[in-house]
UniProtKB/TrEMBL annotation:
Enzyme's top EC category: hydrolase
TM region(s), chain numbering: none
Annotated protein name in UniProt: Dipeptidyl-peptidase
Record GO terms (molecular function): dipeptidyl-peptidase activity; serine-type aminopeptidase activity
InterPro entries recorded: Pep_S46, Peptidase_S1_PA, Peptidase_S1_PA_chymotrypsin
Purpose of the protein: Catalyzes the removal of dipeptides from the N-terminus of oligopeptides.
């Protein structure tokens, strides 16, 4: 189990892959391209550019046209006026934020006809990588000097403090929008400092209706063939000097130093394709025992607990447009990795990932003989995994079930402050805490919250967790359910949702008018919140203790695997830093007698159409355009309209929205998904099956032009015919 994934609840780290690099495998660090000679391999595949055209620390390069969109996606700049292209599912939260029953942009789409119609989106940011600095010697020097140790050097507190110290000494200190992060790579064998320039006036420009942007919905998610127009567009605004600034009507579109030209020349099988973006997390150096732990303790928890919640949400969303809009983003975020976990567990078996890991460990054992720093490392890792798996399983099941349930039941710390203020007769603390409580209420009971939907989720998820875990593994509030409520989950939930202080405005106002210790002690949501969080903290602490020593074992294992592979270069696991992957446009054959072409067309949209199924509704205007073959200059030579295509690029979550670029540095599409048969790819890359599903840029332009009537946006772009 990769440290990054397993400890996402209590820590974060990064690590190095162990698989042999092939032409298409690898999430390469741009700053190491020359050192690792990866540019030569890219040129053999079809790249026409030089290394400095991709990444130039002293000048403008393709790197400067790509950035982090929001909190977990990639976006690219496609015009000199700061126009961003990303996925529809990446912009989904913003689209949902602006949507209401009266202005249902999720259903109808949104097209700004001019700059004044572009919608400010509070909280949405775009980050460019401004500078990358190798700080490995600096960190190792601090370890050697006794200022920290190897384990702490990989941790967030140490690296965060170090990043702030380096910024203070930098020429970038005090510059607008500068953020800095220090991160470990290769399991702490390497460290880099990243300076980002952050723009926070990002406005919504264009989004197709969900019947285009999410065509196929859950059914087609992670599947090929695909016909999803998964794109949306935003624009970066800056002050008059081009610097980051808070929203102002006086801000102007950012004049970007680099943007991607767009090719509509078309694709052929075997064409060079590269992707630059921010892959989130991979776990490719796991031992066999760690893969089993991932399947049984982590993935299965997601499958079981998210499945219960999604079933309830689906029922209420199907019955009400208001609820559908309210919960659209929450549902999409939860269902994506619910289905991913199902597919990953299946692919691990189908692709014999456990057998592959066993073979790697066999080779490693031979390599490690007579090398004390490496010998026995795998066995020590496996021993820790055996001890920690039961606790990790409890942790994930509890977290998956209760983090998303009873949204208003998470304020016991505020209640503790009010109780303390009452007992100590501290009026200033009391007034401050009451304001905190009211703010918490407003944050929960917002436009995207429905009390009765949340109640229904709680009634389903609490008994589901009790069924998944042993009685002695459950939080203490289950004792209240079994005792005071005689095992009646519905009665327990109804009591909380009707009578808790934060359950409705009337109850809150009554409490704020006359707060008392007795009311706090009797409040069911406060008791629930305390019990839930104490259990999660207890499990997190236990797991941390059981995992003690794992960081250094991983560090040694990854270093040894890198040495074992030499002179073949290794790339570090994904950790949401900028990477480049290269490969080719390519079809695949997943099963006997099954062959998938490398592209799909709009013919498939009409073949999948089902007016009775919300996932497969085709807008009337789009249907008419397809039937009339009114595709303009975006069609292929034979008159058909491409939608999606496949490449062999190595991607994962976080790469959503990444540009797919041809050998001449021109945009040909945007990455948005992986294929079902290779969902074990985050753990083990399969060169025969691994495919990136990308949206053809010609379909983006066709939808933008013919469906959205946004020719003014296309005029901004540099289109290569």
């Amino acid at each position: 189990m990769n440290l990054t994934f397993k400890k996402c609840l209590i820590a974060a780290a990064a690590a190095l892959t162990v698989c042999s690099a092939r032409a298409d495998e690898g999430m390469w660090l741009l700053q190491l391209m020359k050192q690792q000679n990866s540019i030569d391999m890219m040129k053999k595949q079809g790249l026409k550019l030089e290394a400095d055209d991709l990444y130039n620390p002293n000048g403008v390069s393709l790197k400067d046209a790509v950035g982090i969109f929001g909190g977990g996606c990639t976006g690219e700049i496609i015009s000199p006026e700061g126009l961003i292209l990303t996925n529809h599912h990446c912009g989904y939260g913003a689209i949902q934020q602006h949507s209401s029953v009266e202005h249902d942009y999720l259903t109808d789409g949104f097209w700004a006809m001019n700059r004044s119609e572009e919608l400010p989106t509070p909280g949405l940011k775009f980050r460019f990588v401004h500078r990358i600095v190798d700080i490995t010697d600096l960190v190792n020097g601090k370890i050697k000097a006794g200022e920290t140790d190897e384990v702490n050097a990989m941790g967030y507190p140490f690296l965060s403090k170090l990043a702030k110290e380096e910024l203070e000494k930098s020429d970038l200190k005090g510059k607008p929008g500068i953020e800095v992060r220090a991160l470990p790579f290769y399991a702490g064998n390497k460290f880099y400092l990243f300076y980002y320039k952050v723009y926070n006036d990002v406005r919504m420009v264009a989004a197709p209706p969900s019947s285009v942007g999410k065509f196929g919905g859950e059914t087609d998610n992670w599947m090929w063939p695909r016909h999803t127009g998964d794109f949306s567009m935003f624009r970066i605004y800056a002050d008059a000097n081009g610097e980051p600034a808070e929203y102002s009507k006086d801000n102007v579109p950012l004049k970007t130093p680099k943007y991607l030209p767009i090719s509509i020349k078309g694709l052929n099988e075997g064409d060079y394709a590269m992707i630059m973006g921010f892959p989130g997390s991979t776990e490719r150096y796991l031992t066999q025992s760690e893969v089993k732990q991932r399947m049984n303790a982590v993935n299965q928890a997601m499958i079981d607990m998210r499945g219960v919640r999604l079933e309830v949400l689906r029922k209420y969303m199907d019955a009400s447009d208001k609820t559908r809009i309210q919960y659209a983003s929450k549902f999409a975020g939860s269902s994506n990795y619910w289905k991913n976990s199902i597919g990953m567990n299946k692919a691990i078996i189908d692709n014999d990932v456990l057998g592959t890991k066993a073979e790697i460990e066999k080779k490693y054992a031979e390599f490690a003989k007579g090398k004390p720093e490496y010998e026995g490392v795998v066995e020590k890792i496996d021993a820790i995994i055996e001890k920690s798996t039961p606790t990790l399983r409890q942790l994930y099941y509890t977290n998956e079930a209760l983090r998303g349930a009873i949204e208003f039941g998470s304020t016991y710390l505020v209640m503790d402050n009010i109780k303390k203020a009452l007992e100590e007769k501290n009026d200033s603390l009391l007034q401050a805490s009451k304001k905190q409580l009211e703010s918490a209420y407003d944050g929960i009971h917002n436009k995207d919250y429905d009390h009765e939907v949340d109640r229904a989720v709680a009634k389903a998820i609490l008994p589901a967790l009790a069924k998944a875990l042993n009685a002695d593994e459950l939080p203490t509030f289950y004792q209240t359910i079994n005792g005071e409520f005689k095992g009646d989950y519905n009665a327990y939930v109804d009591n909380m949702y009707d009578n808790s202080i934060l359950s409705n405005r009337k109850n809150l106002d009554k409490f704020l008018a006359k707060p008392s210790v007795k009311a706090i002690e009797k409040d069911p949501a406060t008791a629930y919140s305390r019990s839930k969080n104490e259990k999660l903290q207890e499990l997190g602490k236990q797991y941390g203790e059981l995992e003690n020593g794992m960081e250094l074992l991983h560090k040694a294992y990854i270093r040894g695997l890198g040495e074992m592979k030499q002179p073949v270069p290794s790339y570090p696991d994904a950790n949401f830093t900028m990477r480049l992957t290269y490969g080719n446009v390519k079809s695949y054959s997943p099963r006997d007698a099954v062959h998938y072409n490398y592209y799909t067309t709009t013919d498939g949209i009409l073949e999948k159409e089902n007016p009775e199924n919300r996932e497969f509704v085709v807008p009337a205007k789009l249907k008419e355009l397809i039937q009339k073959k009114d595709f303009g200059r975006y069609a292929m030579a034979d008159g058909t309209m491409p939608v999606c295509f496949l490449t062999t690029n190595d991607i994962t979550g976080g790469n959503s929205g990444s540009p797919v670029i041809n050998g001449e540095g021109q945009l040909i599409g945007t990455a948005f998904d992986g294929n079902w048969e290779s969902l074990s790819g985050d753990i083990n890359f399969n060169n025969n099956l691994q495919r990136c599903i990308a949206l053809d840029i010609r379909y983006v332009l066709f939808i933008l032009d013919k469906l959205g009537n946004c020719g003014h946006l296309i005029k901004e772009m540099n289109i290569v015919e």
